[in-house]
Amino acid sequence: MASVRGLAAPSSEAQELYMLLKYPHMQALLSAHDSVAQRDYGPVLPPLPDKLPDNEEPMRIVCLVKNKQPLGATIRKDEKTGNIFIARVIHGGLADRSGLLHPGDKLVEVNGQKVQGLQPEHVIQILVRSQRNIHFKVIPNSPQPINSRATLYVRAMVDYSPLQDPAIPCPDAGMAFSKGDLLEIVDQRDIRWWQARKLHSASLCCGLIPSTNQFRSKQRELWWSQPYQAHTCIRPLSAGDVGEEEVTDEIKYIETDEDFEFVSEEGENGEHMQGLYIAGFRHSLRVWRRKSYLRRKPSCYSCGVGICHDTSANLYEEVVHYQRHIDDPPRLIVLIGPSGVGVNELRRRLIKINPNTYQGPISHTTRPQNMGEKNGREYHFVPKEMFAYMVVNNKFLEYGEDNGHMYGTSLDSVKDVLDNGKICVIDLEPNCINSVRTKKLMPYIIYVRPPSPESMRQTRKDPHFLANSYIKRCFHDKDFEEIEEASRAMEGKYRQFFDCVIVNDDLQDSCMDLFTAIQHAQEEPQWVPASWVVPVHP
Ligand SMILES: Nc1ncnc2c1ncn2[C@@H]1O[C@H](COP(=O)(O)OP(=O)(O)OP(=O)(O)O)[C@@H](O)[C@H]1O
Predict the structure, then answer these.
(1) How far apart are CA 506 and CA 512, in angstroms?
(2) Phi/psi at 376 (nearest 5 deg)?
(3) Atom of ligand 1 nearest to the CA of 285
(4) Is CB count within 10 Å lower at the N or C end of the chain?
């Protein structure tokens, strides 16, 4: 700049250069460059002592610059010798990134203070008090064992809080996670405590999480310590129940409010739309489900392994990043949501707008065929015995009873849609999720969440929007609260299975969100259970 200034008649290029160099951010850039070029950063280490005693063990002097991040190391005391050791170095933490401190290193001095014989709490106090730099003298441990397994990606299947876990060696070093979080496990050397970080999290630093072994032993402890409890779960529908006249309390659903009005099944049930038939299992069971959801206790049978009792829940599910190949069958799209949120409406609109791409499976029913209905179009009409046979042979993904008739969605009917190259869209009760979570169907599970009761009041105030088209009546405030409550319960229990959440506020927007989510599911890489992609060896 001085040179340009010295010119009597600077050229236009020289003037432009002068202007550029004058910008503060340009000057800051040049200054940063000079600092890096001169290595004018980092701590200044104290000089090595001139005379080192011959018999002294090789020692490492480590200087770490304290910043807002945690040190990322834990210590332990050997009660016999009084020696203090580094117990664990947390991946991504300050100590780990220095590459100078390792598990098993013996701590000799911290900031010039000898630590042998001190209690770990004292050492921590010294660390807390140190201002800018922390100086360690350590006797390095022998070579570090190499991490036996490469990074593992998992989905958390339970909620975990280190602050509420009395077993964790250092709660501050623990990492809390929630059901459905994707975790990157970077260190499994310790059989009980692994180190992991959350995927897509800004923090590089890992935290301690229980290993599967640790979790299992905890489960066993819990199991032994629990008093004996007789099973109070309701009896699941069994093949023997098919066709029984009697309806149990759990599925007695019809309220006696006078503003309830029944719509006859004829003409309504098959959702006939301009030559397009969207028969739906959910539709048929709408009343049963709507009134029964909150009162019904989930049966052990229906809730599936790993959900009913915490003691049998899995802690993690290994996942891999999967990109669907263009020749692979489309992934099954599963919509889940509390009754009344609009699952059926969204599915219906999706199929109506693009019937060449999306289709629902044709359900089976034992109810008589109505005039104008065609077997295999609205429903597969089957005799009770046939339905019972299919139940016994696990042909259904989901089945249930409505008004004395059985309805079910069979696996084959879903496969028929997929084999036709269409995207099969089904709605499902969440307790049946396990029946579709298979390598063959590769379901992409979309949860339809209600907006706040206030928003629902706004969007569902048109009398055209009936709370239930089987029983014609408008939404009441009580419905919105019920839906919100049911949604909270559903998410609390099943959110680890949801690949995507759509809030069904404005109908148009929700439809767009659904389109986008389905496109995303079919075309972009997704985290799926490793067992769906990696061949399982016996
Ligand atoms: N975003 C929305 N805005 C306004 N009305 C909606 C919206 N979504 C759904 N509805 C209406 O709410 C009512 C219930 O929707 P729908 O039948 O799809 O519920 P559902 O979740 O399938 O519950 P169920 O299983 O009890 O039928 C319908 O009348 C539908 O038109």
Answers:
(1) 10
(2) 90, -5
(3) 25
(4) C
Q: What is the DSSP string of 6-65?
A: H-SS--HHHHHHHHHHHSHHHHHHHHHHHHHHTT--SPPPPPPPS---TTSPP-EEEEEE
pLDDT at 310: 45
Ligand 1 centre distance from Cα of residue 504 (Å): 9
Which of 460, 476, 490, 506 most suits a substitution to test ligand 1, by most atoms within 8 Å of the C-beta? 460
Give residue-wise pLDDT tens across range 228-255: 444 333 333 444 444 333 333 333 333 3
Q: Are 310 and 157 in contact (CB under 8 A)?
A: no
State the alpha helices, DSSP H only, in 357-451. Answer: 384-392, 411-419, 433-436
CA distance 190 to 172: 18
Ligand 1 centroid distance, CA of 32 (Å): 59
Cα 339 to middle of ligand 1, angstroms: 8
Q: DSSP letters along 476-495, please?
A: -HHHHHHHHHHHHHHHHHHG
Query: First and final CA of the chain: distance in angstroms?
Result: 73
How far is residue 281's CA from residue 406's CA, in Å, rounded to a whole number? 10
* ipTM (interface pTM): 0.97
| Cα distance between residue 351 and residue 360, in whole Å | 8
Give me 163's structure tokens: 């602050």
Looking at the DSSP bridge assignments, the partners of residue 448 are: 502
Strands 423-427, 333-336: pairing is parallel
Cα–Cα distance between 285 and 405 in angstroms, integer? 10
Q: Atom 2 (ligand 1): residue with closest C-alpha?
A: 507
Of 290, 336, 347, 465, the one to substitute when testing ligand 1's pocket (max ligand atoms within 8 A of C-beta) is 465
Q: Which domains does the chain have, with CATH numbers?
A: 60-139 (2.30.42.10), 152-225 (2.30.30.40), 260-533 (3.40.50.300)
Ligand 1: distance of its center to the CA of 530 in Å?
Answer: 35
Residues 6+ apart with CB under 8 A from 330: 324, 418, 421, 422, 423, 424, 522
Q: Residue 327 corresponds to which amino acid?
A: D
- Averaged pLDDT, 460-489: 79
| Weakest-pLDDT range from 307-311, 353-357, 529-533 | 307-311
Is 50 exceeded by the pLDDT of residue 292? no
Per the listing, tokens 């249930």 go with: 400
**Single-letter amino acid, residue 171:** P
Q: Mean pLDDT over residues 6-13, rounded?
A: 93
Give the DSSP per-residue string, 441-457: T--EEEEEE---HHHHH
- Of the candidates 172, 149, 166, the one whose C-alpha atom is nearest the C-alpha of residue 93 is 172
Of all residues in the chain, the percent with pLDDT exceeding 90 is: 45
CA atoms of 278 and 280, how far apart (whole Å)? 6
pTM of the model: 0.71
Smallest CA-to-CA distance from 410 within 458, 351, 364 is with 364
The ligand 1 atom at the shortest distance from the C-alpha of residue 282 is 25
